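Progress against Task 2.4 (sequence-to-structure conversion) is shown through the following example record, which the project officer requested during the mid-term review.
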Amino acid sequence: MKMRNLGSLEVPAVGLGCMSMTPIYGKPDPDEAISTINRALDLGVTMIDTADAYNDGKNEILVGRALAGRRDSAILATKFGNIRYPDGRRDVNGRPEYVREACEASLQRLGTDRIDLYYVHRIDPTVPIEDTIGAMADLKAEGKILHLGLSEASAHTLRRAHATHPITALQTEYSLWCRDVEAEHLALCREFGIGFVAYSPLGRGLLTGTISAVDDMEEDDRRRDHPRFAPENLARNVALVEELKTLAEQEGCTLSQLALAWVLAQGDGIVPIPGTRRRRWLEENTAALDIIPSVSTLATLERIFRPGTGAGTRYPAGQMKRVNL
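Structure tokens generated for the chain above:
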């Protein structure tokens, strides 16, 4: 397995996002999901990413089941502070007392005594980030977390957080379709020696070539609520994917592999964590590490997927208010 560094933490160059292993993009098979996590460990894809917000903590429980007996083989990452209520309401919570409460609950669900990388999932604008990070630093001093991270934080917040305690990684959406972080975040991470974890590097499946119409997604698939998958936007986005398909054929790889290879080519401090709930896609994604796109292909991708080319925001309006704070 090729390795990369997130700050002082050495991790595989590709990780595994586990969000889809519990219901969100339709109904998954939990047995296959657990087999996928174990197959990831076998392949050296040891960075396993979850969050307490995924299916109301049930995702962490599933990950904990999968890691039973193999915990020491994994680099376990989870997140807190992004709250989804049963009635559909959303909130954020970065209060110091809640940081501890959330961490203790995650440790119990995961069946472990420590979290290797603990992220603030969404920034609470009502709490100084210094207070939230201070509470995380206390947990680190106790050995309950080993590294600190932020998710969907602005460059300004990242600076303040890092001044309070060294931040190991920033996790934010990044793909050919979504390149917002190139404006400030990536340069800031390089400046401070902070790793960058790219979630949804396959555009929530859009860049895999498996979605060409709304009906390609299950009826209870949350992506149906996302603007990029709305009928008025999807046709334009699928047209871009067709161009990606042509390039992938030229490179002798799949669309997913080329999309991941592009992310990997953007810097050694970047680690994509494509999410999947099936072993076959995990194996395909991992093989992207062997793909070295030609200079011509990379230049063409830059032209086709220049920032702002894709249609539709990455989240519905309410959720967009909670990113980059």
